[in-house]
Write a structure and sequence with these properties.
The structure is a single chain. With 759 residues, this protein is of the alpha+beta class. The protein contains 7 helices and 39 strands. A hairpin with a 6-residue loop joins β30 and β31. The longest helix has 36 residues. It starts with 15 loop residues before the first strand and ends in a 23-residue tail after the last helix.
Length: 759
């Protein structure tokens, strides 16, 4: 399922499903993809690798007896059919689907996060989760993606075969995405191309297949072979058989960890590389585990603000002793969840710990309320018991408010009768070997952190004419390596503009130059004496802010430890940072070992901007200084994994120099005398209005006084008694009626001061 394939290609001639080469946009029958004249097709090459015949195009398909079809959904343009319609398209006609689906919501390495409600897993209920005949869907893990969990549907859905790529030496692909949602890996050529089929000409091949789409095709062909070896195998069985027989590539990598069932897992390659021979051997003697079902455990209405301390939540799952885990989804609901700062760990009842962090650039712009994090790491473990969710802190930003936490666990009710058979003693792809085709002139060299460095070499061919040559700093144990930016000058010198400043002085290491060019392959090393003058006090040693158009490092700028704060100009919106750490080993390159740089609001601690960078001691960040008086700049580890050279966050308070605002009121179009005249008229009018209001208020009060029925009577005590009695009777009648009046009466100069008040 993807960008279409040629119906009559020689690679699978005689094995096509006649009615299954379809244009998925309108349902019409097609013989070749509409856009094949413009670009080479992924789907065509996928069919060659998965099911091509023997010795075709210097290659061979994994399952050369399989029947094939192709659904055209992706046309090498900006238009892609919606996942809702294609995931189970004509699922009654196929058993295994390779979904070369592209995440169109990406710009460079910036990808949108799809909340679970946007592409709900129920879309696949018709085929993937069919009760009696669940279908097999294989999805490639992308490269160049800034995430360590494959969150783009359908890769993040349960029971999808998510496949990463490894080179023929067993190395994960450069810039490959990583995370606990990766199931396994399969071979791919990496940067060097391998054969694919040509969708334009049914008799020709091309040399362009370099992505994990090739790995997914190889894995899908392998699953077809397993189904042929044992037709009784179902979806559950295939997950166990392939994982239990995988090869542990890069066997010494610190990313490997073992679960309680005995399976090794690595967040770059899952359970390892497919070993089809071992898988077929186990499949032939395998007793099916039956189908699968799921349980859900939930903690609701938590309503808790996540702080900077580790916080734990326990979810009990009641199950039988034989219930065995296939797949786990951790579901989190909250308010203002901060992805880069949210570090959830899941701990099984058996004690297996799994960091399920999500890295993404674009999340800070989105109002994310629901997150689903997938993991295959618990495959084979017992379901019953208390599962624990821990939230750990790697930086000081606001993490959000946690509302609900849930576990959705897919499991089978039977335990495997076989134990894991992973091959754990494979060759180390990081083992360098010196070659006569590329020789260093020195036998040892000195590198000073933060300084430029150069060395000389001889080569049998022009290095600049060769492709895919990389440079590394690599520990002498050959367990991990860090890529460095190098330049080849005049085919005799190698230059580094900046020696990484993140290692302790004296750390044993080699400088390695490696070529992946199939016509000029070598891996040569030079022993290094490493010196870091700042390793005694890790921290920021240079912080500069410049204009975006002039944002380049000054190699000779003075360096010293910056303790607390820095003041910069508001016009300088590009940041240049150098820092020092004291790691005891080189870093295994990848997103898990990357550096996180954050710009945090000083008052609310909300992340305003965030980026990830290779952890080598310096980086440049353009157009990021916010419009505020001050902010927090922080460097932190991207992973909480203590095996990945974790370090405590480094913080600077950044102050902006006082400056005029970005906006000012427009100049007035009136002369000054006009302004004075207008102001005089306004003041006069205001005075008249106030006087009018005062007079009106006075007259209103007077009228009210005239209408009042309160009677205050001033009585002359020298009048006859008869007159007094008469007045008393009057007042008595007025009192009974509860009417009040106000009546003025003349008072003679001879009146007494005895003035009674009657109401």
């Amino acid at each position: 399922m993807g960008d279409g394939a040629h119906m009559h290609h020689e690679a699978y001639k005689g094995r096509i499903l006649d009615n299954e080469f379809i244009n998925g946009f309108d349902g019409s029958h097609i013989e070749r993809p509409p856009k094949s004249v413009l670009l080479d097709n992924i789907s065509e090459s996928s069919l060659l690798l998965a099911a091509g015949k023997y010795d075709y195009c210097n290659s061979r398909g994994i399952a050369p007896g399989a029947k094939v079809g192709s659904y055209y959904f992706f046309d090498n343009s900006d238009h892609t059919e919606d996942l809702t319609y294609l995931i189970c398209y004509r699922s009654d006609k196929w058993d295994i689907s390779i979904l070369t689906y592209q995440n169109a919501a990406c710009s460079g390495r910036n990808c949108k996060y799809f909340q679970p409600t946007e592409f709900h897993v129920s879309i696949a209920s018709k085929c993937l989760y069919h009760s009696s005949n669940p279908k097999i869907i294989v999805v490639p893990i992308p490269t160049e993606s800034a995430t360590d969990v494959i969150f783009a549907p359908p890769a993040g859905w349960p029971l999808i075969f998510t496949i990463a790529g490894v080179t023929n030496r067993g190395m994960p692909l450069n810039h490959a995405a990583e995370g606990t949602g990766i199931f396994m890996a399969a071979p791919v050529a990496g940067i060097a191309p391998i054969s694919g089929a040509d969708a334009k000409n049914p008799t020709e091949c091309i040399e362009n297949f370099t992505s994990p789409n090739a790995s997914a095709a190889i894995f899908a062909g392998g699953l077809a072979i397993l189904k042929e070896a044992n037709p009784n195998l179902n979806l559950t069985d295939l997950f166990f058989i392939t994982a239990m027989t995988a090869d542990k590539v890069c066997p010494e990598s610190p990313l490997w960890s073992k679960n309680s069932f005995g399976l090794w897992f690595n967040r770059k390659v899952g359970f390892g590389r497919l070993n089809l021979n071992k898988s077929v051997e186990l499949a032939r003697n395998w007793t099916s585990l039956g189908g699968f079902t799921k349980k859900t455990g939930m903690l609701s209405n938590i309503n808790h603000i996540l702080g900077n301390e580790t916080e734990s939540f326990r979810i009990p799952i009641n199950a039988s002793e034989n219930d065995t885990v296939l797949f786990v989804n951790l579901q989190i609901s909250g308010v203002k969840l901060a992805f880069g700062s949210l570090v959830p760990h899941l701990i099984s009842p058996s004690g297996t710990k799994c960091e399920m962090k999500l890295l993404t650039y674009g999340s800070r712009y989105l109002n994310i309320t629901n997150v689903t994090l997938p993991s295959y790491m618990f495959l084979g473990e017992k379901l019953n018991g208390n599962w624990t969710v821990e939230f750990r802190s790697v930086d000081d930003s606001h993490k959000g408010v946690l509302l609900h936490v849930a576990l959705q666990i897919y499991y089978t009710s039977n335990r495997p009768q076989h134990s894991p058979r992973q091959k754990t003693n494979g060759p180390n792809p990081y083992q360098p070997f010196n070659s006569s085709s590329f020789v260093f002139s020195e036998t040892k060299s000195v590198m000073n952190a933060t300084h430029p460095w150069k060395t000389t070499f001889t080569s049998t061919r022009n290095i600049n004419e060769s492709s895919h040559i990389l440079c590394y700093l690599q520990g002498t144990q050959n367990i991990s390596r860090t890529k460095v930016q190098c330049d080849f000058v005049d085919n005799k010198e190698i230059h580094l503009d900046y020696v990484p400043s993140v290692y302790r002085t004296g750390l044993p290491m080699n400088f390695v130059v490696e070529s992946l060019d199939p016509d000029f392959h070598f891996s040569s090393f030079l022993p290094i004496e490493y010196i870091n003058a700042f390793d005694d006090k890790p921290g920021i040693i240079s912080f500069e802010a410049k204009e975006d158009g002039n944002c380049n490092f000054d190699i000779d700028s003075p360096l010293s430890l910056i303790i607390d704060n820095k003041t910069i100009s508001a016009n300088h919106r590009c940041i240049l940072v150098k820092y020092s750490l004291d790691f005891n080993d080189t870093i295994d390159d990848g997103y898990s070992a990357s550096l996180t740089a954050s710009i945090i609001n000083y008052d609310s601690l909300v992340v305003l901007n965030r980026t990830f960078s290779r952890n080598v001691g310096y980086f440049k960040w353009s157009s990021v200084v916010p419009d505020s008086k001050k902010f927090i700049f922080q460097l932190s580890a991207s992973s909480d994994n203590r095996n990945m050279n974790y370090f405590k966050s480094i913080t600077l308070d950044i102050f902006i120099e006082p400056h005029e605002g970005r906006y000012s009121p427009p100049p007035s179009s009136f002369p000054i005398w006009n302004m004075l005249l207008i102001m005089t008229m306004l003041l006069t009018l205001t005075a008249l209005v106030i006087k009018g209001l005062y007079i009106n208020l006075y007259l209103t009060e007077y009228e009210n006084i005239q209408r009042n029925e309160i009677s205050i009577i001033f009585t002359d005590t020298r009048k006859p008694e008869k007159e007094k009695e008469k007045n008393k009777e009057k007042e008595k009648r007025k009192t009974k009626k509860f009417k009040f009046s106000w009546r003025k009466k003349e008072v003679s100069s001879e009146s007494s001061m005895n003035i009674p008040l009657v109401i």
